[in-house]
Design goal:
Elements: H1 14-23, H2 30-36, H3 42-56, E1 60-63, E2 66-69, E3 76-85, E4 88-93, E5 107-109, E6 124-132, E7 135-144, E8 150-157, E9 163-167, E10 176-180, E11 189-194, E12 203-210, H4 217-225, H5 234-244, E13 254-255, E14 262-265, E15 274-280, E16 286-293, H6 295-298, H7 304-312, E17 316-317, E18 322-323, H8 328-334, E19 342-352, E20 358-369, E21 372-375, H9 376-385, H10 390-409, E22 419-423, E23 429-434, H11 439-461, E24 468-470, H12 476-487, H13 501-509, H14 514-527, E25 532-534, H15 558-570, H16 591-595, H17 597-627, E26 634-643, E27 646-651, E28 657-661, E29 670-673, E30 678-681, E31 687-688, E32 693-702, E33 707-712, E34 718-721, H18 733-736
Parallel strand pairs: 5-7, 10-12, 13-20, 14-21, 28-33
Antiparallel strand pairs: 1-2, 3-4, 3-6, 4-5, 6-7, 8-9, 8-11, 9-10, 11-12, 15-16, 16-19, 17-18, 19-20, 22-23, 24-25, 26-27, 26-32, 27-28, 29-30, 30-31, 32-33, 32-34
Helix pairs in contact: 4-17, 10-11, 11-15, 12-14
């Protein structure tokens, strides 16, 4: 076979990258693309941005280690045999990501005769794939075990007495017949698995979970859907009990028990990672200590606890429970910085000048005794009332200096509301409200940011490995979309300049109307890239920081634990080894992690996204449950998104996105304008656009899926807040002569900015 010509060196175009991926006979990841085009240094960073843009544009799919054309098939992937045609297996990708309207490609599997039994329908194989003139082909590499996917749903019974599984995932549109109830009854939440290879095939119940609307069920649904481990193996629990008994020696740690270090946390905090202390240095600046739980002392690399923590990646927090990264004896007890009790800590000592610049730092393993736990609200109340003690006043004074430094950096200032679900003692919803943002929150946040920066710089000073928290500059495609969107408000976003957080802040500052500002904030947020973990120093755009690592929450984030271990190594902070036994002796980085931080960084970035999705969906289910008793009520809403099939709106002050289908807007045809993101009636001229405020009636609220559906209050709906100039009504005689209230009659038009 003739070798394909090697691409010319230099930064490739998107077309050249796509051609390389399609023509490559092996996996084509970022590394292979960079090597093919001879890219080095800054060119590799630019390549990463190009690949991100291509993924956003829908040109390519996959991960950085293996890209493929969108709609195509990865070079190496898992296939499921769908059928046998003319003695040859026909397979499809086991996990097909495009939407339901795009059928999965069919691949003809080329088996090597004499290499094991022939493949049969339902078999799964790891295979190399190639696209030929006659279609896709696959070459099996390894036969895999048949997968039995777990499905979460509610048992329903039809009029004939037949049982069906109604899925809790709103993306699954069809119920499945139940072949084996396994003791489950109608109305119960169950786990089931498919008995065949088709999603439409029957299922059998494997576990009965109980009442789907009972307290604690909503988080359980999300936990099962996203595959979050929520029970600890016995081996891990036993090892945690042993680790909890490790002795703390004041002789081998810096003794800080004499300092009045304070822990400021939510009143219902389940664990306490951090505590802070500060005092004036007599020269216009401050000395500060950020004490962080020394989890690395108890969780050693290679231990059973460590392996389980790596798998979880982080804790997941729900209104009714926490799924911790570490067993409770560690996360809620021994590692948690409780007031009045001796605790192991990693202490970050900072010297801060009068304008908030960090002029010095050092890290030690310490012994601390927290003087007091204070809830955010109580700390704020003491400061506001003027009766705060000296310790609290010193913290606020030091924060004012840090605040000056933050203002000089000008980080991205997006104040987005956070929903808070309050439950009563029986686990029922007592209140859903927007969480208040206090100065006390900012105080703790800025101390934590300072410690995170110091940790990253400390490791850099020793040329040690760093797991950075990365947030890259927005990609051009998203910026162009934001520019087009801002133009609909009559505002200009100039892209011919260096993009900084300050650019967005100035844009927001120019918006004086509060409702418009909220809309612009949401648009700016959508334009941002997603933060992640990685071993390369790429900076944190949102915080306007060149060096940033997560150091302050090792109880609930594995990334922070890795940073602690790196600090232990870099600064010779290893404690005396525990006695030989089940607990490993070293507490620094393992050789495995030291050699390839990229692998574990990618894994914990994935688990973070998994937990965020589960937490968000659980809140949506609680909101839907809260609203299910208010069907038919009219709410003030704001349109958050528009598509050709309808628009989404959220209840102001409460949240909970719901759909208004275009089919319910009236008899006339509504045209969708993708650029302005609007729906416009072709006869009445009625427009619906993001940011419009409407009075909408709640039509449906499904607590099991978290889905809401709205409808217009009456006729064309009531506009609360028109947008922009008023457009002339389009009057046509046949509509003026229609019956009162008939769909399609003249409606008040929305304005747009």
């Amino acid at each position: 076979m003739a070798r394909k010509p090697k691409p010319a060196p230099g930064l490739p175009t998107k077309k050249q990258i796509l051609e390389f991926i399609e023509q490559s006979e092996s996996v084509a990841g970022k590394r292979e693309i960079a090597r093919a085009f001879g890219l080095k240094g800054q060119e590799k960073i630019k390549l990463k941005a190009i690949l991100k843009d291509m993924a956003d544009e829908g040109l390519i799919d996959g991960k950085k280690t293996a890209y493929h054309r969108m709609g195509g098939v990865p070079k190496v992937t898992v296939l499921r045999v769908l059928d046998i045609e003319d003695g040859e297996p026909i397979a499809i990708p086991d996990n097909w990501s495009p939407d339901d309207a795009t059928p999965p490609p069919r691949l003809r599997v080329i088996e090597k005769r004499g290499k094991g039994p022939a493949l049969k329908k339902g078999d799964r194989v790891l295979a190399r794939t190639e696209e030929t003139r006659t279609g896709w082909r696959a070459h099996p590499m390894k036969k895999l075990a048949v997968r039995t996917d777990q499905v979460l749903g509610v048992v329903e019974t039809d009029k004939t007495g037949k049982s069906w599984l109604s899925p809790t995932d709103k993306r699954i549109r069809h119920s499945s017949p139940i072949s084996d109830l396994n003791g489950a009854e109608a109305g119960q939440l169950v786990l089931a698995e498919h008995t065949g290879t088709s999603p439409r095939s029957g299922v059998k119940v494997t576990q009965v979970l109980g009442d789907p609307l009972a307290p604690r069920a909503f988080s359980l649904i999300a936990i099962h859907k996203h595959g979050i481990p929520f029970t600890f193996p016995e081996e891990v629990l036993e090892e945690a009990e042993l680790a909890a008994k490790l002795p703390l020696s004041p002789e081998t740690r810096e003794d800080l028990r004499h300092l009045p270090i304070l822990a400021i946390d939510p009143p219902d905090a389940r664990d306490h990672d951090d505590a802070i202390w500060a005092e004036p240095d007599g020269e216009g600046g401050f000395r500060a200590i950020i004490a962080i739980a020394d989890v690395s002392f108890y969780v050693r690399p290679g231990s059973a606890i460590d392996k389980e923590a790596r798998k979880r990646g982080n804790s997941a927090y729900f209104p009714d429970r926490v799924v911790p990264m570490l067993p409770e004896v560690l996360s809620a007890d021994v590692c948690s910085l409780r007031s009045g009790e001796d605790r192991a800590a990693m202490a970050c000592h900072l010297t801060i000048d009068g304008v908030g610049k960090i002029t010095g730092w050092r890290f030690t393993r310490a012994l601390v005794r927290i003087a007091e736990f204070i809830a955010y609200e109580n700390a704020q109340a003491r400061i506001d009332a003027g009766n705060a003690d000296e310790n609290l006043q010193n913290l606020w004074a030091c924060w004012r200096a840090l605040e000056k430094a933050r203002d000089d950096r000008d980080p991205l200032a997006l104040e987005l509301p956070e929903r808070r679900v309050v439950l009563d003692e029986k686990g029922r919803i007592a209140e859903i409200a927007v969480r208040e943002r206090l100065d006390a929150h900012r105080v703790v946040e800025d101390f934590m940011i300072a410690a995170n920066v110091a940790a990253a710089k400390a490791l850099e000073s020793k040329a040690a490995p760093v797991v950075y928290r990365l947030h890259e500059t927005p990609g051009r495609e998203k910026l162009v979309a934001l520019k087009d969107y801002m133009a609909t408000f009559g505002r200009n976003l100039a892209l011919g300049q260096v993009i900084t957080p300050g650019l967005f802040n100035r844009m927001l500052k120019d918006v004086t109307d509060e409702s418009e500002k909220a809309l612009v904030m949401e648009a700016v947020l959508r334009s941002q890239t997603q933060a992640y973990y990685g071993p390369q120093k790429l900076g944190h755009f949102g915080l306007a920081l060149a060096s940033y690592a997560h150091f302050t929450s090792p109880i609930r984030r594995y990334a922070d634990l890795l940073v602690h271990r790196a600090l232990v190594d870099a600064f010779g902070q290893e404690q005396p080894a525990p006695p030989k036994g089940k607990i490993p002796r070293g507490s620094g980085l393992s050789e495995r992690d030291r050699e390839d931080l990229g692998r574990i960084s990618e894994a914990i970035s994935d688990t973070e996204r998994r937990a965020m999705a589960a937490e968000r969906e659980t809140i949506d289910r609680y909101v839907a449950a809260w609203l299910s008793a208010r069907i038919g009520e009219v709410f003030e809403t704001r349109i958050t998104g528009v598509q050709k099939f309808g628009f989404f709106a959220t209840i102001i002050g409460l949240g909970g996105d719901g759909l208004v289908p275009v089919s319910t807007l009236g008899a006339e045809r509504f045209e969708y304008d993708e650029k302005s993101q609007t729906l416009e009636g072709n006869e009445s001229g009625t427009r619906y656009a993001p940011g419009d405020r409407l009075r909408l009636r709640l039509a449906e609220a499904n607590p099991l899926t978290g889905a809401l559906k709205f409808e217009l209050e009456s006729g064309g709906g009531s506009r609360i807040e028109p947008r922009g100039r008023k457009l002339p009504l389009k009057r046509k005689g046949k509509h003026l002569a229609g019956k009162r209230g008939r769909p399609g009659n003249i409606r008040h038009q929305g304005r747009r900015r």
